[in-house]
Amino acid sequence: MVGVALTFDNGPEPEVTPGVLAVLARRRIPASFFVIGRKLRDPAARACAEQARAEGHAIGNHTLTHGEPLGRRGAAESVAEIAETDALIGTLHGPDRLFRPNGGGGALGPHLLNPAAADHLVAHRHTVWLWNAVPGDYRDPEGWVATAHAMLREARETVVLVLHDLPNGAMRHLDRFLGEALDAGAVFGAVPPESCVPLRRGVPAPGFAACIAAENQPR
């Protein structure tokens, strides 16, 4: 039996997110939505985020533009990516002020943050959620379900599963995936493992340094 922390990145999308929320409500499964800040400037997209928060899901910061990972960007630019999104999220933030960096295809490593971004996250008491299962629904909208099931079967710790509420057709399979996972014994709503939370309310864990680019890395 594997625990699963279900997350959605890169939304909200008015064409997709309400359907995802309907599936989650029907299945009574909580999730965390890591939103792209610029999308919240669209009233329809913000309404999706507001609905998600009202229905008990968490809203997290996934940068303003989802461009180049922050560890490969300048200090001021990377801090603005975080701070401007925080301002747009506003009251939708929960007490943990969740943040997820952009990995550039799901990769982990020191490209995730630069020192300025890391210092900002510490100073503003953010909690950073990484991931350990990215089945690639954003690039394989038909085949991701089988990949996700394989990841759950092979898991040795709680799974932080990253899906995407994007308009590519992948979320048409969400209800089927969740039903099959529940039937196989998956338990949704699990707390992420320590390995996926390198910063908790501004307090670094040992893995936080591994997310930060060296000071002298070319920008």
Outline the structure in words.
This is Chitooligosaccharide deacetylase. One of its GO terms (molecular function) is hydrolase activity, acting on carbon-nitrogen (but not peptide) bonds. By secondary structure, this protein is of the alpha/beta class. It has one domain: Alpha-Beta Barrel (TIM Barrel). Helices cover 31% and strands 14% of the residues. It is built from 6 helices and 9 strands, in the order E-H-E-H-E-H-E-H-E-H-E-H-E-E-E. The protein has helices at residues 17-27, 43-54, 75-89, 115-123, 144-154, 174-183; strands spanning 3-9, 32-35, 58-61, 98-99, 127-128, 159-164, 187-188, 199-200, 203-204. Strands 1, 2, 3, 6 and 7 form a 5-stranded parallel β-sheet that branches. The termini are far apart.
Compile the SSE list and pairings.
Blueprint: E1 3-9, H1 17-27, E2 32-35, H2 43-54, E3 58-61, H3 75-89, E4 98-99, H4 115-123, E5 127-128, H5 144-154, E6 159-164, H6 174-183, E7 187-188, E8 199-200, E9 203-204
Parallel strand pairs: 1-2, 1-6, 1-7, 2-3, 4-5
Antiparallel strand pairs: 8-9
Helix pairs in contact: 1-6, 3-4
- Would you identify the CATH H-level superfamily? Glycoside hydrolase/deacetylase
Q: Report mean pLDDT, rounded to a whole number.
A: 96
- The structural class is alpha/beta
Total individual domains = 1
Please name the CATH architecture.
Alpha-Beta Barrel
Radius of gyration: 16 Å
**Main pleated-sheet profile:** 5 strands, parallel
Q: Could you please say which CATH topology applies here?
A: TIM Barrel
Helix content: 25-40%
General form: globular
Write the H/E string, N to C: EHEHEHEHEHEHEEE
